[in-house]
# Entry
Amino acid sequence: MPYLNVDEVESAIELAAESNPHLTELIHLPHPTWGGRTSTAIRVHLDSEGSEAAEGIYLLGGVHAREWGSSDILVRFVQMITDSYRTGTGMTLGGKSFTASEIRGIVETLDIVVFPQANPDGRRYSMSVDPMWRKNRRPARSPSPVCPVGGGSGPGVDVNRNYEFLWDYPKKFSPAAPVMTSTDPCSEIYRGPTASSEPETQNVIWLLDRYPTVGYFIDVHSFGEDILYNWGDDDNQTTDPEMNFRNAAYDGARGIPDSTPGGDPKKYREYLSIADLQELIGLGTTMADAIRAAHGRRYSVKSAVGLYPTSGTSDDTAYSRSFLDSARKRVLGYTIEWGPERASIPKSFHPDYPDMVPIVEEVTAALVAFCAAVAGRVAG
Amino acid sequence: MANYHVTVQGKDREAMADLVRVHGLRVYPQTLREVADGERVSAVADEEMISRLRGAGYRVEEHEDVDEDARSSLDQVGRGNRFRAQAED
# Structure
């Protein structure tokens, strides 16, 4: 069984919606891609018409074109959760099982918004022309430079560097910070001409606006066997709420983690509450435990920042929104980097499908475990 | 110009930060590891970049041509539409 192609991802979601009309809402995203494609998402919740859940979880995939398995994972998640609920049975993924009662709790308690293929143009290009392609397919426009092609190079925007959070990195970060983003339109990590300039980015944010119950956001990527949580721009701290991304006094100071030789001269760290940090680690560990139970793989749970900090990412943008507007619900953000590094870099991003099968199972197990844990808390 | 999977080793974290800050190398941050005499990271680079990195004192190991290797993945992609056929059954 091969990877799902672009049309198949969309058809699978439409079929899941048609087969489960009382459990699902099919969502057509409002911003057509550069290639003119209308993207599709699905919300899973019992009696979804008009009823509101107490809590929501938003699962995103297919942002980076070459990470083919992310869309397959989320399609499988939707199929399994709807099938299990409809048939009143539990679910087994490798060595990890969930009871029918747990599945019922998830579907009846939560809004689960699943957007499995955020960058269909890029996926199509990666699956037919350049398998190392990462970005969207924003066309080159004069006076943009002529980019080299092949190996993932060429025009386009890295959607996961195009979000609002600290997008203006030359101003917000230290000049000494090795930030993983770029102003070069040919770069694989080009941030785009303005924050949220891309239709793919706008669609992701539109879903956050449309479903205000969402309190958790998980962006599925490859590779590295990591579960990353907020923040990605600098080390975390829980004691000084004024030291945060909104505070212009710290512009030019961000992005030097304490692990840098000689430490961080300006001692900047990004604020989050101790309660949020504990919840991020706790639920991240729940996912890691489920992955290990499924097929024995050990994923690390850690904050997203490393030697190379990031800006303009989805998970930090999702979390940052309640800091910018207290009327918005707090959304804890994760990025899952599925699969190990392999001898071949292309096969690290998209393993041969037989090697992808256990990864689909283990990450699906992680997502179901995450949902079950949140549903259990809501139910009290 | 061909692009290669490379492993780049530098003497310390400053050197590894310079891969991005100074050289604009396409590193894979999740592969950064400490080794006995420094740190190493996987990346993608063309011949020109590889020469530049070696000239700057990095140890660079070349692995597969990523374009050539990646092309073999295309036969892992589904053809047609299995779900549309299922919906029409």
